[in-house]
Amino acid sequence: MEIDYRESFMDDKNILVMKLLHYFIIDKNYNPIVLQGAENEIWLENLDEEYRVIRIVMGTILNEEQFGFDMFKTKRILKKIKNKTFAFNLKTLSIFLDLDKDITLNTPKDLICVSASDESELKKNKIIKEFFPDMKDKLKYSEDGMQLFAKITNDINEHNLRDSEKVEKVFRPKYPMITYILIVLNVALYFLPLIFNKTNDFAYKYCVYPDFIRQGQYYRLITGAFIHANIFHLLCNMYALYILGSQLESFIGKIKYLFVYIFSCITASLMSMVFLGNGVSVGASGAIFGIMGALLYFGYHYRVYLGNVVRTNLIPVIILNLILGFSVEGIDNWAHIGGLIGGLLINMGLGVEYKSSLFEKVNGFIISLIYLGFLIFMAFIYVK
């Protein structure tokens, strides 16, 4: 998104707007929100800040009726943004640059309004001083006139170009090699025992069977995810793995994806051990639910781009499959739940490129280890 201010009028209001855009986009990493029908106002979002939405209003508001309509319109737009970004709390700051002095700014706590007719008045505002204390220094420039326009325009365009390159890198389709290898392994481990008439022996030796795992056959926690009961079971899981796995692998990379898959296999098998009793569990569905959990976490961080897809496609698929798992006999739904949670948590630890901080990743690994430790305790000590 390129912004060109060269045709703007060189008045104080437009200069202040440009300075605010430079501050929020460059220094605070807000991104422009493209809205249809929003005139004389600019919307910016950064879902990691205290004020997740910043709204700069240039239009003139002369009375309470105009202000009331503006608030009504703003709430409707925010509702749409909430639906898209899964944000229950979308704290918003509206900065009015041409608001009549007699208008009372009585607004909800999550929709704060600030009125400032010039730069000095804005810097003195108590809300700006509390939440954006560095603004007073950041709005100072040695340039003026067209030089200021050129500097701010170039800085914003370069920032937006870097952001678009990052997004393009993350969402650019990559060859899903690990997914294809996993599919080949699953198919081969179904048909090879079948060809040599060893299906039952193979399943008996490598399935998830709690008693044998407790006796030291820990490899079953992973190998059970590569065994399938019948051809329909195999085809359903491999189709889901191809669709979902190739997407996650493309988004987070091969090594992280493989880590998610293996960790989800283990947590799915451990959860089965807790609730399975003396039953047997096989299939890749626990790991596939782990992939869905990881996609949920990734989609949350990139919800500006994937919000509608996650809300209308991924979440309903997860809910529907969990309901089906509890409704149909013979489905190990506890493995699904164990894998789903495991995939989400370990992806938190691995981090989402350009989005996750070191603090978030460390917390993710700690929570993942706590979750794994809890399942081990429940499977091997508490339930025996």
Topology:
Blueprint: H1 12-27, E1 31-32, E2 41-45, E3 53-57, H2 64-85, E4 92-96, E5 111-115, H3 119-124, H4 126-131, H5 135-138, H6 145-171, H7 177-195, H8 199-206, H9 210-214, H10 220-223, H11 231-252, H12 254-276, H13 285-301, H14 303-327, H15 333-350, H16 358-382
Parallel strand pairs: 3-4, 4-5
Antiparallel strand pairs: 1-2, 2-3
Relative strand content: 5-15%
**What is the CATH third-level topology name of the largest domain?**
Rhomboid-like fold
Given as residue ranges, the uncertain stretches (5+ residues, pLDDT < 50) are 1-9
Derived from helix and strand composition plus strand pairing, the structural class reads: mainly alpha
Radius of gyration: 27 Å
CATH architecture of the largest domain: Up-down Bundle
- Count of alpha and pi helical runs: 16
Within the largest sheet, what's the order of strands?
Answer: 1-2-3-4-5
Q: Percentage of helical residues?
A: 55-70%
Instruction: Supply the CATH class of the largest domain.
Output: Mainly Alpha
Shape: elongated
